[in-house]
Amino acid sequence: MAPLSLPLRPAIVPWSMLMIGLLVLLQHMHDDANVLADPILAPELKYCHLPLNLPDGEAPFDCCAPNWDKPALDFQLNESAPSNLRVRLPAHALDADYAAKLDKAYGLMKALPSDDPRSFMQQANIHCAYCSSTYQMGNSSTPLQVHASWLFFSFHRWYVYFHERILASLLGDDSFALPFWNYDHPDGMTIPDAYMSYPNLTDVYREPSHLPPAPVMLDYYYMNESIRTADEQVAANLATIYRMVVTGATTQYSFFGQPYRRDDSPEPGYGTLETMPHNSVHGWTGDQQQVGKKDMGTLYAAGRDPVFYAHHASLDRLWEMWKSLGNEDIDDSDYLNSEFVFYNENAELVKVKVRDSLDTVKLGYVYADVENVWMNVTTGRLSDGVASLSGSERVCVMGEEMVEPCSIVLRREKEAALAAEEMLVIQGIEGVLDSPAHFEAFLNFPHASLSTMINCTEYAGRFSTLAQMILTNMTGNYLNTSVQFAIGSNVRELGLNEEEFIIVTLVPRVEDPYSPIAITSMKLQYETQGVSRDWRELRLAHRVRSEKTRHE
Ligand code: C2O
User: Fold this and answer.
1) How far apart are the CA of 299 and the centre of ligand 1, in A?
2) CB-based contacts of 158, cutoff 8 Å, min separation 6
3) What integer is the mean pLDDT of 412-434?
4) Which stretch is the leader sequence (predicted)?
């Protein structure tokens, strides 16, 4: 396939853009007195505007929430655990009664008038509004985008929380809980049956070839399916969760995504889980023939498929699982004080803060105990030791489109690595958002290719986007973001602790239609801040041990 040469950046900046730039600049100058800190406050509904443009073939629609002309209510967190916790069950194991009840709840939601904020259409529109910059930050005129930043997990927890409370109230059953799509367990790796067989839980815009029994591809890109057996796919899925939750996300920002504060530009950086399985499952589920692979494949339409909410309950659960490994939530006050607004089950507008979303028990729900098979994944090595470049490998050129696998040599700080987490940081990831873009990173394995299976020790992680067909700002749908993976466990298992250099090989997974992707910088970084205490102690113990051995 011949790559189109699309410009990564627009060549011409319209004058209106310059004016906005000037305003932003003035605002920054004004803010300089109290620099740095400020959370993003809840958007005001009255400043919502129509999506800037819609993809060809999409009927014009307005995804702003219905207006609310009073001040939003403040969410009241229940500080003591409610006596009846709602239990979110794995979706593949629902009994017929539960599935029928879920179907009934969505039937009632779909029957509400479309201007009711609790109606299914309005629920789906929430996602469009918070992802397409139709809102601006409550304390800034900067467009708001909740994805690819540290807001990702909390925003979606609140979104699913209110969605669930509305379904419960329509059923008149306070104990009702949404199921979660348990695709991290071998028994849950297809679209759950209930979402296939009940009329209110299905969606016409799903990829026909991905319906059951097709196994979900947590590291999906369109060519995987032709090169893997079903067993290999299960192994790849478990390896995906293992890398993205356990070894690749040992620091807070690597897991949650990068800080995003007042006036910041959108999409500062993805957390590991947002790229996979989040983005990949979206892209896999949607109809590959539709523009942006809608519904699930593109942000503005994803909430129109009921399975969206089971997908996000799953990610919400994986956040809990990550914490169960000894990791802690971010305690930056800008993070904790970030706000959103949602309509509740009484159709009242409620303002919520990130800080009130951190404990699901206080929100009244928990997840059923399910075995986390992926926690114990063991990987094998594909290489037999320290690699070197032979000279025939393609070298990654920063800022240039990546079309084929390429390698780059990075210098390590051996000593720093003993007491801190070693991070592979990839910045200035640029591309267009009309079609997903992906690449994988391997350590000391320059032979990595499109067919390399990812359940290996050399695999550090993968970056994966989600199509975003509605323009997010005046300059168009251009991606400029970052991702980072903790690689300490790979380095130890590959026996690279004493090495001064690591070869990083990137394997772009080119999509059809082709979507260009480039990165402007890649480095190793050593972090202690935000690393969970257990991990730090483990690393220190390791240092003491190795110093001892040296002295003996
Ligand atoms: Cu807001 Cu699954 O995306």
Assistant:
1) 6
2) 340, 342, 352, 357
3) 92
4) 1-37
